[in-house]
Amino acid sequence: MLDTLPCEILTMIADWLPPASLRALGRVSSGLYSVLVPQLYRAVTFRAASEWALNVLDVDSFLLHHGHSGTTSFLQHTRHLYIQAPIHLARFNRCAYYNIFRTAGLAQGPSTLGAADETRAHEQFLNDTADQLHVVLAQLKPDSLRTFQWRLGTCIPAGVLDEGGYLSRHQKRLTCLSLVTDGTCPHARHHLNGLSQLSSLTKLEWEGIQHPAEVESLRQCIRRNRKHLTDLSIGFVLSPNARSLRWDVLGLRWPGAGPCDEDESIPFPPLSILSLYKVSLSGDLRDYSSFRSLQALSLRDCPNVLRFLRSLSGSRSTLNLREFELCCDFLLHEPDDDYEFSSVVRFLFSFRGLQHLRLRLSNFPELGFRVEDAIRHHRPTLESLVYHQRQLAPIDNEGLFEDDRDVSPDWIPGLPAIVDLCRVTTLALCTSPSAARMCLQPAAAYSTLQVLHLRFSGAERIHRDIRHEVLALLRKRRSGCPPTDHVDEVAEIPVYSGGESDHVEMDTPSAPSETEDFVAFAEWAFGPSGLPALQVLAFGDFSHNDRYPGQQFLVRRKGQPGQCSGKGSDPSVCNNPNGFPFCPASMDDPSIWDRVSLDGARLLTACPGGGLIESPYEL
């Protein structure tokens, strides 16, 4: 029947389908497939399966199965090209991990290799990557690409972003450029001079910047695209010579900074989205008119951020922010910033209309710091909230050593008075499942929550496999074993007791108690007396999607038979009509968000612990 529809109608239908549904529709018949080819190959992703072999992309396998249709390459239809790799353990000097394979064939042993051998190995790594990448680029239609993403977390090979490289010569209409490079690599900063030749960018993302040459390339790119750039995301990496990279190294003239040489500075772009990571900010600005256009602001681990927020909150310019994200450790700020600890609250009180608020606050003093009042200030408009709090605490019985630990704030029990649970659709809190149930249960019948995330820091439970523990418990419960038949015991570790603090104690419990607590909460939340609108429940640390795969677990509401057959599902748990009202899910399955009105995946990955690329000097 679909074969009889005009091609124009089929194309319109395809534009609304998610990728998985589109691929399924293309398998119905060869006629449908031929019509849907432009949509099927509109976005193409090439991946390196392992971060220990980043030069091994799946280009050959793609071309083998999808290479050509007659004399035309399917890549002629590609408008969005993504080059990706996992970034888990190798977070700095990533190019060198490939060198293990390349140096193995050299005459000298790896222990005696010198700088020349390492340079040669790095060059070969880039050549291997370039050979595969240029095969793909050669098949793209000129000036058709709209998005180019480089997420290998390595240096970019020659011929792509060089001056006169492929993108600047053959893809002049590129509007979105997203880069994750490795500024910690000794050979970084090369092959980037072509950034300034891209003149149509509206969105620019770059994380992993460290070298002055990289900063200069970024500066020139912003200068070239300033008039139409609306979305800018910058992430710096610390170096031993520059502990912080200031915003002014980009040569941007902040609002109200006074007259200066136009050749040396660029007026601040009229951005609507600004995201900064480890960028040292200014706290003495006098005019904030350029910030009026901002609708979303993200400041993660930025030095001097408290002074910046204090100055921004004192501005007469009215902010129109709809989204705000802040990750900040108070202990990392200058000693004379003590009076700034309330800057976050003052800033949130300085405007209204916030719809999405995401906070990860560490080691803030409690006196006068009532962030719950600031959250309540935006109650009429707030649709999503992420809140994660950490505090320095003893990690040994004698109290000689301290480390940051998750804490559950004292205002969690009063959550219904702080946020409107009849309006909020996504919520992420650093608290235990039992504490979450206590605060959500009174208003459960009227709740509009679609996504709920119970957060904890994955590094604190790195010795655990949360997914295995929960699945093991679900299988035992399904097979009729009593709940007391636990999975393997895990010894308790020292936890933050709170001392004189009013924080609710955030224990790191043994495996059985925590998994049972979560399963009991999930049964209630998806059950008849739970949260009627809830579609997805997340537990753990989803920083950068899958950095902590063993410290995260995701479930979805069980619907019609076969609905829970996607990635991450467990047949032994799902295929039981009289079993649990939920089933395991996976972030790789986009269908879990079908009944969610907001970007649920973005909520789970908000306020991550650390950056994608990290300096060895801060680990």
Automatic annotation (TrEMBL):
<dbReference type="InterPro" id="IPR001810">
    <property type="entry name" value="F-box_dom"/>
</dbReference>
<dbReference type="Pfam" id="PF12937">
    <property type="entry name" value="F-box-like"/>
</dbReference>
<feature type="domain" description="F-box">
    <location>
        <begin position="1"/>
        <end position="44"/>
    </location>
</feature>
<protein>
    <recommendedName>
        <fullName>F-box domain-containing protein</fullName>
    </recommendedName>
</protein>
<dbReference type="InterPro" id="IPR036047">
    <property type="entry name" value="F-box-like_dom_sf"/>
</dbReference>
